[in-house]
């Protein structure tokens, strides 16, 4: 019997923990895993805004799409 899993990573935004995301991206590519990425298009989450802003974030999203990864919206601004 074959098992299938869905890996979903949320809180992708221009302000996020880029070091952690880079590490997981390398692992996903190494094992040829295509995750679902939850992107916050207009991040206003104070916890995430503590991280540095990545000017090339949307280029990263395009790169993820080129890998065959699925992109979903994870709340427009992520404010509770």
Written overview of the protein:
Helix content is 29%, strand content 16%. The protein is of the alpha/beta class and 80 residues long. β2, α2 and β3 form a beta-alpha-beta unit. The chain starts with 7 loop residues before the first strand and ends in a 7-residue tail after the last strand.
Q: Strand percentage, roughly?
A: 15-25%
Got a strand count? 3
What is the helix content? 25-40%
Instruction: Quote the distance from N terminus to C terminus.
Output: 41 Å
Helix and strand element order: EHEHE
Give the biggest beta sheet: 3 strands, parallel
Ranges where pLDDT stays below 50 over 5 or more residues in a row are: none
Using the alpha-carbon principal axes, give the shape.
globular
Strand order of the largest sheet: 1-2-3
Round the Cα radius of gyration to an integer and report it: 13 Å
Number of helices: 2
Please identify the structural class as seen in this structure: alpha/beta
Mean pLDDT: 96
Write the layout of secondary structure elements.
Elements: E1 8-12, H1 18-30, E2 36-39, H2 57-66, E3 70-73
Parallel strand pairs: 1-2, 2-3
